[in-house]
């Protein structure tokens, strides 16, 4: 009897999980007529409620995709059981998207972003340096200065309002209520409710998602500026920046093909001057004529840490799970040595035994 019950439970779990999976797969079928009907309904209503969102999408690469339009439902469909999901006009959707959603179509980019310094930028919010800044430069009654300051770039933990049992509170429309102290938040290192790190719209403006916007120097400069990280000011006064702005004045808005959709390759599409993305992320023609791919891991091409008084040379280490670490250059790399086992979250660690081993 117990065996029959166990089999029944497994049977039910299999089909409920399959249904959730089917929903996701169905929503990502850009040629599915059912999805097209749903998206027509979205557009009809949102043209009345917030027309600018629709116009942004209509002029986006998603709308112009040759293999089929990537519409509202493609991205906003929610899986059954998703805390962020809710029924809206007969469709189960979610408003807030994360890199996990973008990864359904852009898996390499999301994977690179997920192990980058950008994705971990929000972790500094738990540091002693930040705690000191909040107390000394902050406001005792609220965190308005953090919203308009640090979180705008670094991000923070995005939270839902919950009841005493930990379940999300719902609005009249059944949408989950956001904790207003953590939302809105487009900081590049924000920690999302689904556990993912980062947010693509920090660089790619939502609903238009144009790569031409992401590769503009000003896009990086909105965060990388000021006395503690003056990369914007350094670039603008450098030969690179001067050459770029000169080309913009001479050739107009489309200088260096910077407004081009899709791939933007140094040595093919342009040659006049580099932007931030050219060196840190961009594709380029190699000496043998082949094209080096771009990268969404902005730390892959950085060899020096400039935060310290004396700059530190870095050795970049990539682990088997694709996480990365920067090892100071004065520590020589060790060959033919097995990597140390990485700690498992939640597992107890015998610190005393580890210290004795080191001694």
UniProtKB/TrEMBL annotation:
Q: Which keywords appear in this protein's UniProt record, sorted alphabetically? A: Signal
The UniProt record lists the keyword Ribosomal protein: no
Comp. bias regions, Basic and acidic residues: 163-173
Which residues belong to the signal peptide in this entry? 1-22
Residues in Cytochrome c-552/4 domain copies: 27-76, 102-158
Q: Could you tell me which SUPFAM superfamilies the record lists for this protein?
A: Multiheme cytochromes (SSF48695)
A single GO molecular function term of this UniProt record: oxidoreductase activity
- List where the protein spans the membrane: none
User: According to the UniProt record, where is the region Disordered?
Assistant: 163-186, 329-359
Entry-linked Pfam families:
Cytochrome_C554 (PF13435), Multi-haem_cyto (PF13447)
Q: Does the keyword Cell membrane apply?
A: no
InterPro entries documented for this protein? Cyt_c-552/4, Multihaem_cyt_sf, Multiheme_Cytochr_ET
Extract the coiled-coil ranges from the record.
none
Identification of the protein by name: Cytochrome c554 domain-containing protein
Question: Native species of this protein?
Answer: Desulfonema limicola
């Amino acid at each position: 009897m117990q065996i029959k019950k166990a089999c029944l439970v497994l049977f039910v779990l299999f089909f409920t999980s399959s249904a959730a999976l089917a929903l996701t797969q169905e929503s990502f079928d850009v040629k599915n007529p059912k999805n097209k009907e749903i998206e027509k309904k979205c557009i009809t209503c949102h043209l009345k409620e917030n027309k600018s969102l629709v116009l942004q999408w209509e002029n986006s690469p998603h709308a112009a995709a040759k293999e089929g339009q990537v519409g509202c439902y493609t991205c906003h469909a929610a899986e059954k059981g998703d805390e962020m999901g809710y029924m809206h006009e007969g469709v189960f959707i979610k408003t807030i998207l994360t890199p996990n959603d973008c990864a359904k179509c852009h898996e390499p980019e999301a994977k690179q972003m997920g192990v980058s310094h950008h994705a971990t930028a929000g972790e500094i919010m738990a540091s002693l340096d930040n705690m000191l800044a909040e107390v000394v430069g902050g406001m005792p009654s609220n965190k308005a200065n953090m919203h308009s300051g640090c979180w705008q770039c670094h991000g923070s933990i995005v939270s839902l309002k919950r009841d005493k049992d930990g379940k999300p509170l719902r609005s009249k429309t059944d949408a989950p209520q956001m904790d207003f102290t953590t939302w809105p938040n487009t900081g590049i290192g924000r920690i999302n409710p689904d556990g993912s790190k980062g947010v693509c719209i920090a660089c790619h403006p939502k609903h238009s998602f144009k790569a031409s916007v992401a590769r503009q120097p000003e896009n990086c400069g909105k965060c990388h500026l000021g006395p503690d990280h003056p990369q914007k000011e350094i670039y603008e006064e450098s030969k690179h920046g001067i050459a770029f702005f000169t080309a913009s004045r001479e050739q107009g808005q489309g200088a260096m093909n910077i407004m081009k959709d899709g791939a933007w390759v140094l040595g093919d599409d342009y040659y006049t001057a580099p932007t931030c993305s050219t060196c840190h992320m961009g594709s380029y023609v190699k000496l043998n004529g082949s094209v080096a791919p771009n990268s969404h891991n902005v730390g892959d091409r950085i060899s020096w840490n400039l935060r310290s008084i004396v700059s530190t040379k870095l050795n970049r280490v990539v682990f088997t799970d694709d996480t990365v670490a920067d090892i100071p250059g004065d520590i020589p790399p060790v060959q033919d040595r097995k990597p140390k086992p990485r700690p498992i979250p939640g597992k107890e660690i015998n610190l005393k035994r580890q210290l004795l081993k080191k001694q």
